[in-house]
Amino acid sequence: MKRLGILLSGRGSNFLAIADAIAEHRLDAEIAVVISNRPDAPGLAAALERGLHAISFPSQGLDREIYDRQLIEGLRAHHVDLICLAGYMRILSGYFIREFPQRILNIHPSLLPAFPGLDAQHQALEHGAKITGCTVHFVDEGLDSGPIIAQTPVPVLDQDTVESLSTRILQEEHRLYSKAIALVLSGNYRIDGRRVISSML
Questions:
Q1: Cα–Cα dist 31/115, whole Å
Q2: Is 101 helix (H, G, I), strand (E, B) or coil?
Q3: Of the candidates 142, 110, 106, which has an alpha carbon nearest to the alpha carbon of residue 126?
Q4: Which residue from 137, 156, 134 is spatially nearest to 146, judged by alpha carbons?
Q5: 155: which residues sit within 8 A by CB, 6+ positions away?
Q6: Among 33, 74, 84, 180, whose CB has the most other CB atoms within 10 angstroms?
Q7: Which of 98, 116, 96 is nearest to 107 (CA)?
Q8: Kind of pairing between the strands at 104-108 and 30-36
Q9: Residue 145: in which H helix or E strand, if any?
Q10: Distance between CA atoms of 101 and 93, rounded to whole angstroms?
């Protein structure tokens, strides 16, 4: 069975959605380890409550590559096949990304390439977008720029606030991420330039 390494910094709602998908046999995988750069992250406590291996490597004050070397050791010690970012709020170093080529996934709350970076929901409202959504993509050394695996659109309503829009996007994230992970773990895809091509998409 394929082994997932989850990186998170906060509440870990996408991590919990992945864990639920595994428990409900919608995703054939196991969570090998959950790692947070914040010892007080609620997602870390939630992982421990579920009996998962959960560890913290505090990142404050550490050089990015020095920290990422610790992270790599932790992931390799648990023999992970795929790394899933679930609200991980540190930018990964190029060194880290090169150690796990096409084995790192991220979920972003917009239809990339629109609104990369922080506050994507705020960006969508500021730009007057009528449709936004969420994207699962491979992580490369750019900002939210890796090949796109899957996307789900979410309409922007006239009365939306950042909070209401974020809530509706998050509901779709929880559905989309596990499906994208299943596709990648199946190996039933190929990358042609920037395009991820699969009969399952």
A1: 30
A2: coil
A3: 110
A4: 137
A5: 130, 131
A6: 84
A7: 116
A8: unpaired
A9: none
A10: 13
* Pairing, β 3-8 against β 190-192: unpaired
Ranges of beta strands (E only) in 37-147 are 54-56, 82-85, 104-108, 131-138
* CB neighbour class for 200 (10 Å; exposed up to 12, middle 13-18, buried from 19): exposed
Give tens-digit pLDDT for 150-198: 999 999 999 999 999 999 999 999 999 999 999 999 999 999 999 999 9
Q: Which domains does the chain have, with CATH numbers?
A: 1-100 (3.40.50.170), 107-201 (3.40.50.170)
Structure tokens at 32: 């090998």
Token pair in block for residue 130: 């009528």
Looking at the DSSP bridge assignments, the partners of residue 190 are 197
Under a CB-based contact definition with an 8 Å cutoff, are residues 150 and 107 in contact?
no
Active-site amino acid positions: 108
Give CA–CA dist 112/24, Å, rounded.
29
Digit-coded pLDDT (tens) for 5-50: 999 999 999 999 999 999 999 999 999 999 999 999 999 999 999 9
- Amino acid residing at 27: L
Letter for the amino acid at 9?
A: S
* Rounded (5°) CA angle 103-105-110: 155
Which DSSP letter does residue 11 get? -
